[in-house]
Amino acid sequence: MSVLAELVGETVIDREAKMTTVADLVQGIGTGGVVGLYFSAHWCPPCRAFTPELAEFYKKFRETDAGRKMDIVFVSSDKDEDSFKEYLNEMPWKAMVYADRDRKAKLSKKFKVQGIPTLVFIEAETGKLVTAKGREGVGSDPGGKEFPWHPKPFSEIIRGELLRGEDTVQSDEALSGKVKGFYFSAHWCPPCRSFTPELAKTYEKVKAAGKNFEIVFVSSDRSDDTFKNYYKTMPWLSVPYGDARIEHLSSYFEVEGIPMLVLVDENNDVITANGRSILEKDKEGERYPWIPAAVEEIGMDNASNLNESACLFLFTNGNTTMQESALDLLRDVATAYKAEQKASLESDNELPPLFFCYEGGSAESVEIAISLRAFVKVEDEEPCLVLFDIPEERKYTLSGKDINKDAIQKLVEQFKTGTLEFEQLDM
Questions:
Q1: Which segments of the chain have a pLDDT < 70?
Q2: The pLDDT value given to residue 376
Q3: Which is nearest to 54 in space by CA: 135, 149, 165, 169?
Q4: Please, are residues 279 and 261 in contact by the beta-carbon 8 Å criterion?
Q5: What's the pLDDT at 105?
Q6: Which pLDDT value is given to residue 212?
Q7: What is the pTM of this model?
Q8: Is 332 helix (H, G, I), strand (E, B) or coil?
Q9: Most distant CA pair in the chain: distance in Å?
Q10: d(CA 109, CA 308)
Q11: Local structure of 224: helix, strand or coil
Q12: 351: which DSSP letter?
């Protein structure tokens, strides 16, 4: 069985209910071909808006030499087969067989699909990811001139002149070897105007301490004059107003709202996208360079992680002994897993991210834990350990009396090998 057949099944279906083998599909686009996996559903308004745009692109691009080496397979998130068939009728490409829900779930997890519509392009022969941003490619390059939209390295995206006050400087000279914050903001945004002066104070303190740190303003202002007046309040660098890099950086860092501060290390790897929350808690910059710990107390600065990946959460339920021992219980296994997961990114057997955290004693941490306990339906009032996976709607609970280092190690090993016996998480 080919790699693509393992991903989408051995046959695909078109809107006339005609079945085609995946082997024939791959043969049809030839050596070096790519396949787009279109995650979509009829009940989703943005999907219904994007599908006609994608269909127009598909029909025109398929008439070109490059386009004949491309095809698309619809991966449905429809709620029933009748809706799937109705929606497929609008599409000129083929689809995964609707009944294969388990395969669809595995495909969504493999490509980290967290929302629809999502268009992922992969190599037809190897299954290797080409780009997860096909939707953006169709929107910005409807003629397919740069297809298949291989992602540019960060160093290439940011390369060029930056503003330093009224002067300019080359990005390589200004940013090379530094920890960097990319500050997505705009004057029209009230939370941005509130955060900017606080961020400026922290920036000045970090710089005064001799740290190798820089911030780059990435503007969402609506006019050049507004941008210039807002930038005058900032002591750091900026991408020029209207520069194409603004859109590229927003896409690269998946910016969905402002203000947003993305912290990036010396090697251009993302430290965290939650820089705003982190620096609001560290106004003196004492935690520079803000590398997340292997185990974290849950708080507003990291709570978004709960929705993005599997999480191993220690509910202490006000038990001070458990709170004091939380780091000791979790640190070794968390450190080892994170190192192994990072190394796996370069292999064909990538481990899924796993966020290790616990309920601390602060009012903020307790409040989040109470809400989370209700959400994942943990009825035990005693301390307990829950490995839950919101994207996959599943959980596993270890009661307080069973919590020890050996049990935690065993649980994580079973998660890693896919042998952990989860129960359904009712959403």
A1: 1, 348, 380-381, 427
A2: 87
A3: 135
A4: yes
A5: 87
A6: 96
A7: 0.79
A8: helix
A9: 68
A10: 11
A11: helix
A12: P
